[in-house]
Structure formats: C-alpha cells, structure tokens
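Hi everyone,

Forwarding the result from last night's run.
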Amino acid sequence: MQNLEIELQAQLSTKNSLENSLAETESRYGCLLQQIQGQINSVEEELASIRCEMESQNQEYKMLLGIKTRLEQEIAQYRALLQEGQQDIVASQGAFQGGGKSSHSYSSTSYSHSQCGDMTGKTTC
C-alpha cells in the first residue's frame, strides 16, 4: 500500500510538472502569437497605405496622360497651321512674282482654342 502511495505521489508530481511546462509553453507561444499578430497588423496598415498612394499616383498619371494627349493634339494643330501658313507664304511669293494676289485670309476663330483654355482643358474665358 505504501508503494502505491509513493507511486501516486510520483505520478501527481509528474502531472504537476507537465501542467506547469504546458502553461509555460502556452504563455511563451501566446506572447509570440501576439508579436506576430502585431507585425501582421503593421504590414496590413503599410499595405493599405501603399495601395492608397498607388491609387493616388494612378489618378495623377491618368490626369497627366490626358494633359499630354491634349498637348499633342494642340501641337499637331499648330504644326498644321504653320504648314498652312508656310504654303500661303510660298503661294503669295509666287503670286507676287507672277503679278497676282493671294486669295487666302486668316480667321481669328482658328486661334480661339489656345486663348480660351487652361492646361486641364477647361474653358477659362
């Protein structure tokens, strides 16, 4: 009977030791889990910030692309006007040398686009 009591005490001591070890392990891993969760939250906040910044940059890119397109169109219009003007000069020089007159006249409405718009394409006058 005394042997059984000693064995019971030994088993209870082992049980208590294992329970303490389990509690320490749970505590240690609980702290690690909290640290990892904090890192995850930090990375998620950073990711949200980066997404917001990317969206802002995307909007700015689209705006700048629109401005670039409008400027390219305006440059093409000016080139066409310059070519037309050069052709008129050549034609008038030929007509002057030949004794004739040029019948081409410029309209002020062809220049109204550059006078009534800002860089965003909005009418300012």
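The chain has a mean pLDDT of 83.

Cheers,
N.
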